């Protein structure tokens, strides 16, 4: 496995859409995002009225992960997190999530929501370490498999040193299953 220290996180730009789509189709063959969905999200990620934060992870010029957050008022919503299979277990998922939570703080979000597959206990444990708590279910959320989603919420940014504010360098190496963060195509967050 590759150490995440060689992986650099940076803002996602339009030229990352092609490589992101390749990773998207590899990880989410049944419900992959379209290029248009990425374009729409990135259209809201720059400028004074930005409401999105998308980042990519690169290793030696290769895109090995990406993540995105949408903000509306004081609510943040994790839109997607994807980590290349050869990066699973390196802590890259925790690094990407940490970056999204920093963005939520910058957007002044009082809470951040996400959906995770009910059968992905490993990812649920990662999110719990970051202060996310279960608040409900969305029946049949993941299609076409008709798998339920557990909705999790994290309230405001914890104080430094709070157990819900882990140092990503100390984070367990468990990365979430990529299906953890896949919203349905056509969800209002992609309008």
Can you walk through the features of this model?
It is a single chain. This protein is 23% helix and 30% strand. It is built from four helices and seven strands; from the N terminus they run E-H-H-E-E-E-H-E-H-E-E. It has helices spanning 17-27, 35-43, 92-106, 121-129, and strands at residues 8-11, 52-59, 62-72, 75-83, 111-117, 133-142, 147-155. The chain has a seven-stranded mixed beta sheet, sandwiched between helices. Helix 3 (92-106) links the parallel strand 4 (75-83) and strand 5 (111-117).
What attributes does this structure have?
191 residues, alpha+beta, 30% strand, disordered C terminus
In short:
This protein is an alpha+beta fold. Helices cover 23% and strands 30% of the residues. Helix 3 links the parallel strand 4 and strand 5.
